[in-house]
Amino acid sequence: MSKLDLSQFEKKMIVRNTQDGDIDQLFELQKICFPDMEPWEREHLQSHLRYFPEGQFVVEFDGNIIGSCSSLIVNFDEYDDKHTWDDITDKGYITNHDPEGYNLYGIEVMVHPKFRRMKIGRRLYEARKELAREYNLKSIIIGGRIPNYHKYESDLSPREYVEEVRNQNIYDPVLTFQIINGFTVMRINPNYLPDDEMSSKYATLMEWNNIDYRTRTKRHFKTSHPVRIMVIQYMMKNINSFEEFSRQCEYYVDVAADYGADFAVFPEIFTTQLMSFLEEKVPSKAVRRLSDYTEDYIEMFTHLAVKYNVNIIGGSHFVEEDEQIYNISYLFRRDGTIEKQYKIHVTPNERTWWGIQPGDAVKVFDTDCGKIAIQICYDIQFPELARYAVDLGANIIFVPFCTDDRQGYLRVRYCAQARAVENQVYTVIAGTVGNMTQVENMDIQYAQSGIFTPSDFEFARDGIVGECNANVETVVVGDVDLEILRRQRKSGTVRQLRDRRSDLFDLHYKVNTEYKPERT
User: Where in this chain does the record put each CN hydrolase domain (predicted)?
Assistant: First the structure.
């Protein structure tokens, strides 16, 4: 007898994280597991992978998906005892996923009926438990269906039914399984899943406690998380050298450090001040000569950020790349690292006079003061960009701008304040003032820079942390509180991020979707 090829008998069962390519199979699995319930939409599952890919699992057997589960992290103390599935999942989109939360919340488990005695559910629950240990979470909480309750509804209340199952007098395929897996019943919630007729819309709220949980001091509830911002309303005037420009910039960074600022924010294209000594009158040629100072500009601000221990939003600067000119804003972190954001929407003036090309990626940057975004002037007037940045975790949007008249300035200001309200985010605008008589297309400037908040009781009365006097060279210093922002997003008078109708509309970002912000 020849030696057996054992590989022909192998059928691999793998538990792994869900991938985008699994979505079509998950649709088919859901139709089989829950034929009478409202199914996932593709946007739901894509949202799960965007916000918490580590919390989504599938079981793959012989190349086919036969089981799956979805979950998110929450701070469960912030939710009402009688919450519904829609409440805890933001209607299935899990945009309320909180990386700083204490509890893993399981929102769905599916196992193909043909494989329900192969410990598929147990494997998925073990994956969740391992995830809770890895993330050092206090517990796993689930809202469990009781699908056999409809058979006993006329004779037993939900509480009596749960007691009978717990005493093993009645078998329930979900509740019995959860009890065996170490979950205890906390309470019974009515109207948890409106389309779950088999459970008569009830669910058992159950918890598994992580005995390996270690208290972390840094995760204690914070009463405040202030971030201090200094906005520079920069005076555009004729100068004679890069060294003179550098001295002016260092002066303001020094002031920011004296005030204990976490961020110093310069305006859009304030480096065009260098054109005043370049002696080039043709605007399209002048910007290319200006781009020759890019390395000097980057070296200067990198040095200042480290020397004065201040994160610097370096306004924006015209940069030549592959023979094209871009309007780029740089983030100079105080640890010496650098990021950049291209201006995405180019104004007619920029295109006509300077030949500026648009960027195509919305970025969100990690800093030692949380996640931030930069949207240069005209970009803040397109609400999709701010919404996408906030979806990626931004708490502050910095807006360097340069406008020549009051109407242009008000477009930036009104839109920045609107973005703050509709996205529950802080916005900061920094503009140029003065004039440069020797520079073509940089004739006059108008600005009133400021720091803006959402509009609710815990924020400044008018949604304004501080603002400069119009059209003078000055600064404004103000504190924004990220802890207040976090609380208001969850329990404010209005909650635009959680209440938006994702069932009716969604934002699809078409270009550079491979960009993902670093996770903190």
Answer: 227-482
pTM of the model: 0.65
CB atoms within 10 A of CB 258: 11
How do residues 200-252 score in pLDDT, each as one tens digit?
A: 989 899 899 999 998 865 444 556 789 999 999 999 999 999 999 999 999 99
- Within 365-515, strands assigned E span 365-367, 370-374, 396-401, 426-435, 444-445, 450-452, 464-467, 474-481
Q: If you average pLDDT over residues 462-486, what whole number do you get?
A: 95
Structural tokens at position 311? 């994160």
Q: CB-side exposure of 31: number of CA atoms within 13 Å?
A: 6
Question: What are the tokens at 341?
Answer: 């954001």
Residues 402, 433: Cα–Cα separation, whole Å: 8
Q: How far apart are CA 129 and CA 210, in angstroms?
A: 8
CA separation (Å) from 447 to 282, 296, 469? Answer: 26, 27, 9
Give dist(CA 421, CA 227) in Å, integer. Answer: 19
The candidate with the shortest Cα–Cα distance to 482, out of 332, 392, 372, is 372
Q: Which amino acid is at 321?
A: E
Active centre residues (catalytic)? 268, 343, 377
Nearest to 470 by CA among 395, 393, 389, 413: 413
CA angle 485, 488, 490 (to 5 degrees): 115
> What b/e sequence results for 16-40 when a residue is b if at least 16 CB atoms lie within 10 Å of its CB, and e otherwise?
eebeeebbebbeebbeebbeeeeeb
